[in-house]
From TrEMBL:
GO terms for molecular function: inorganic triphosphate phosphatase activity; metal ion binding. Residues 7-211 form the CYTH domain. This is Inorganic triphosphatase. Residues 226-525 form the CHAD domain. Pfam families: CHAD, CYTH.
Length: 534
């Protein structure tokens, strides 16, 4: 591929309903900004990968698209950290089969790795009816040219399986990327749209893998010593959003409890980041961010609580009684009754989760935070000592923030052996904030001592987490029939068995828990200036 064929693709995708396309086309956001007639075409693209899906594992795309009488081969890199941009290399080929000999650019070759055409096989095909409308936002130097594509079609596998796709794709041709968010926010006022973070390639591979999305943990964040405080804020917030949205599909399916768990972890990480950098964020922006995070976390919380109760608290007790070879049969029946009531409660909680994720408020939150980061919204404040630090290297701030979080956790755990449950819960929260700060900044330090510190902290956190789960179970059992329904015979007895079982377990592990606390306190700091101040 020639150097001239390299470009950066910068786009934002919005999932839509086909019946809303006409409404969107005539909305002021589009109709008042058009720069020419709309064009329509059919796009048929075949996506290739190896049998072991090594390209998909790195989020690299290789496709061949039929365009009129010809074919175009495209290589795309994984999305940039902002989720909007990615590298793209294109060239003409003679057929629907890829021709790797035409790829000469070093970056594209590195993406593909050591593979030959014999290693490749067609994985899926997309057939899309696309209508394109070019629009211009703004004027003068701030003007942005955006290609709005209304895509409707299907993803098809060689074995006949398929899934629909319907989306509005906003591709930046020139101007500031923030304009994509501006246009998207306007379009959501004309019709119900949802931010779609997955590419067609990612959805096609998910279908080929059985259609079941997998829960994903947060990817390791990479900062370097030259990264400014402002740059760190942007990268951390984007990473938290990407982590949350990556688990959206599996959460909506509701079959893997890890999905909603990871979405909540992402939200906690995001809230912790916002609190960590609070001195640099204007008060009104901070309050909006925290308010929306609390709303969404509150919507996801009950589902996670009932998942934990069913899998980690009730299930072990039921299993133990079921394995008792006939002993305690009445207790088994009571526990099964309680399990059925808890499952009904869990299913209702997931209905609330789906309602929240599919709501206009959720989409507005994602687009609002994305726009805030892209526009560096925190700059909208008077010049002050804190605002000036936004442009200084984050390495000068990281030591101070880590030390501050560590001291708060140490104070919260003072006299740990004698702390009541409520104060231990506060310690748990302080440790979470400390751990997230460590994970945000870990790439700035030598990895070995950081890893040792995290491992020691994680062991103690896990033990504290179990204590919290047991305390939460008591609350959940009191809420089991807060909708006015009546408990079935035997439910109260089963609830008492579960609570008693785990209360005994907590008492048995108290000495080990105290020892874990002291092990953590004795762990050596990995940051370079424990007593540094900003």
């Amino acid at each position: 591929m020639a150097e001239a064929d390299i470009n950066r693709e910068t786009e934002l995708k919005l999932a839509a309903k086909p019946e809303d396309f006409d409404t969107l086309r005539v909305s002021p956001a589009i109709a008042d900004r058009t720069t020419g007639p709309a064009t329509a075409k059919t796009l048929e693209s075949t996506y290739y990968d190896t049998e072991d899906r090594r390209l998909a594992a790195r989020k690299v795309t290789l496709r061949v698209r039929k365009t009129g009488d010809g074919f175009v081969q495209t290589v795309k890199s994984a999305p940039d950290e902002d989720g909007l941009g990615r590298g793209e290399w294109e060239c003409a080929v003679t057929s629907a089969a890829p021709d790797l000999t035409l790829i000469t650019d070093a970056a594209a070759l590195e993406l593909l790795g050591a593979l030959g055409e014999s290693d490749l096989q067609p994985v899926f095909t997309t057939v899309v009816e696309r209508t394109i409308q070019d629009v211009t936002l703004g004027e003068g130097d701030d003007a942005a040219s955006i290609e709005v594509a209304f895509d409707r079609g299907r993803i098809r596998l060689p074995d006949g399986r398929s899934s629909d796709l319907c989306e509005v794709e906003l591709e930046l041709k020139s101007g500031p990327p923030a304009a994509l968010y501006d246009l998207a926010q306007e379009l959501t006022k004309a019709a119900p749209l949802r931010l779609e973070m997955r590419s067609k390639a990612e959805r096609g591979h998910a279908l080929a893998n059985g259609g079941a999305d997998k829960a994903l943990k947060a990817e390791k964040l990479l900062l370097d010593p030259e990264t400014t405080v402002e740059g760190a804020v942007a990268r951390i917030v984007r990473a938290c959003l990407a982590h949350m949205v990556a688990n959206e599909a599996v959460t909506l399916a509701g079959e893997d409890p890890e999905g909603v768990h990871q979405m909540r972890v992402a939200l906690r990480r995001l809230r912790s980041a916002i609190a960590l950098f609070r001195p640099f964020i204007p008060a009104t922006q901070y309050l909006w961010l925290v308010g929306e995070i609390k709303w969404l976390a509150g919507s996801l919380g009950p589902a996670r609580d009932w998942d934990v109760f069913g899998e980690e608290l009730l299930a072990p007790v039921r299993d133990a009684f079921h394995k008792a070879d006939g002993h305690g049969r009445s207790a088994v029946e009571d526990l099964d009754t309680l399990a059925a009531a808890a499952e009904a409660k869990r299913l209702r909680a997931y209905e609330g989760v789906r309602e929240a994720i599919r709501s206009d408020r959720y989409t507005a939150f994602l687009l609002g935070v994305g726009s805030w980061v892209e526009k560096r919204g925190w700059r909208d404040q008077p010049v002050s000592e804190d605002s000036v630090r936004l442009f200084q290297p984050v390495i000068g701030l990281a030591d101070h923030l880590l030390n501050k979080r560590h001291k708060k956790a140490k104070r919260a755990g003072h006299g740990f052996a004698h702390l009541p449950v409520a104060q231990r819960h506060q310690l748990r929260i302080a440790l979470k904030k400390l751990r997230y700060a460590v994970e945000f900044f870990r790439s700035l330090y030598d990895d070995k001592p950081v890893r040792r510190y995290i491992q020691q902290m994680a062991a103690f956190q896990d033990a504290l987490g179990h204590l919290n789960d047991v305390a939460t179970a008591t609350r959940l059992l009191h809420e089991l029939h807060d909708d006015g329904s009546r408990s079935a015979p035997g439910e109260p007895r089963a609830a008492g068995i579960v609570i008693g079982w785990h209360a005994r377990g907590v008492a048995d592990t108290e000495a080990a828990l105290v020892a874990l606390w002291h092990d953590f306190i004795d762990t050596k700091h990995f940051w370079s200036k424990p007593d540094a101040a900003v």
